[in-house]
Structures are given as C-alpha cells and as structure tokens.
C-alpha cells in the first residue's frame, strides 16, 4: 500500500481513482469545513474514514507533514519507461530535471508539469531525490497524473529522444537567446538543472539549444520549479496560439 498525505493528495486520488483508496485517517481534532468536506466525499464514494490521533498519523507518515489527513491506497499503474509515455503522442511536451535533490522542488515541478499539460517528467536515478512521500505530498496529486520516469543514463536518454525527433532545449543563465526568442513548437523537451548548480556539462552538451530566462530585478536566478513553470507555460502558450 502507498501512503498519501495531505488534503490535496487525498482528494485528488479520490476524484481520479476512488476505488484504489482503501481507507482514510483524519485527525480527531479536525472538525473544520475542509475535514467535513473530505469525510462527505469519502462517504459518497464508499471509502472508509477512520478517526485517529496525531501520534498515529505521525507514525504512519514518518515525519512528513500531513495536515491531519492520511490515506492508504493502491499504487497507480503509471508508465515506468519513456517509450510507454510517447506511444501515440504526436507532439510530446516533456520536462527533464537534472540534479534536483529537494523533494519540495520535485513535487512543485510535478505540479507545474501537470498544470501545463506535460506528458512526463524525466530525471536521472543518481543525484536526484526520487519520488518520496514529501515530493508526492507537495505535488498535490500530480504524482498520480504525470508519469515520473527515472533513468539510469540521462545523456543517453536525451540522445534517444533526439532520435525520435524531440527537440532538447536547456536553460542556462549565460545563454544569449531567451526562452521567448526560441522556437518551441513541435515535439519538445525542456531541460532544467538544480538551482545554483544548473545543468551538468554532459547534460548541457546533449541539448540542441540553450536559452535563458530574462531576470530584470536584483535576484540572479529562479527556483527550479518556478523556472519550470515559466518554460512549460511559454511552450503551452505557443501551442495554444498556433491553433
């Protein structure tokens, strides 16, 4: 069984796949409207709700913040290989993350990817945080809707994607061309590195084009999830305009 924590993750799973939720645990002290709405939703969908105490909820989540709401659910059968994701998609929009080790950043990136309609998030197995409970909670349900593909060799995966006709655009603060000047139509993967470190050399060299995000204020860079949002939504805006 998989542990879901927080209102967003639990309600999102109920809406998407209520039959996979075994039971929901709610803190006995939570008598607010939000908890009431969740109880009523679970009841309508035939999911058992168990009143619990914070000590038990803390033990179930191993320290992950849960807002007094925890659910036990069956893992969803999400694609594990990028080939499965790409099957039948004419113009994929992908987010590739290199070296993101903060679960909150990864969760926020998944949430942005879901909102922008990205088909998958790809990251290397090494030097990446992976899909932890904290990342899943921060994703607010997006971890159940956007495939997260962990690959052994990121540079090789990028080459394979390029062979499929997918254009690789990486972000780099020193790039001369901005994201707003780049061609973003067609099959596309946006490649972002961790805040501060940026892209690793091999990842950068595997990109077809490097672009920057204009920084007009005093700060030098954006958080990777914010940068992902800027890039993904610009790509989505272009696609909508082209229609």
Q: What would your notes on this structure say?
A:
The chain is an alpha/beta fold. It has 2 domains: 72 residues, 60s Ribosomal Protein L30, Chain: A, CATH 3.30.1330; 161 residues, SPOUT methyltransferase, trefoil knot domain (Alpha/beta knot), CATH 3.40.1280. Helices cover 37% and strands 21% of the residues. The strands form 2 sheets. A 6-stranded parallel sheet has the order 7-6-5-9-8-10, sandwiched between helices. α5 runs parallel beside α9. The longest helix is centred in the last third of the chain and has 19 residues. The radius of gyration is 19 Å and the shape is elongated.
Choose one word for the global shape. Answer: elongated
| CATH class wording of the largest domain | Alpha Beta
Q: Note poorly predicted spans.
A: none
* CATH homologous group name of the largest domain: SPOUT methyltransferase, trefoil knot domain
Separate helix tally: 9
Could you tell me the mean pLDDT? 93
- The assigned structural class equals alpha/beta
- Please state how the strands of the largest beta sheet are arranged side by side: 7-6-5-9-8-10
Largest sheet: 6 strands, parallel
The CATH topology of the largest domain: Alpha/beta knot
Which series of helices and strands comes N to C? Answer: EHEHEHEHEHEHEHEEHEH
Gyration radius, rounded: 19 Å
Number of strands: 10
Helix content: 25-40%
Please report which band the strand proportion falls in: under 5%, 5-15%, 15-25%, 25-35%, 35-45% or over 45%.
Answer: 15-25%
CATH architecture label of the largest domain: 3-Layer(aba) Sandwich
Distance between the termini: 43 Å
Q: How many domains, as an integer? A: 2
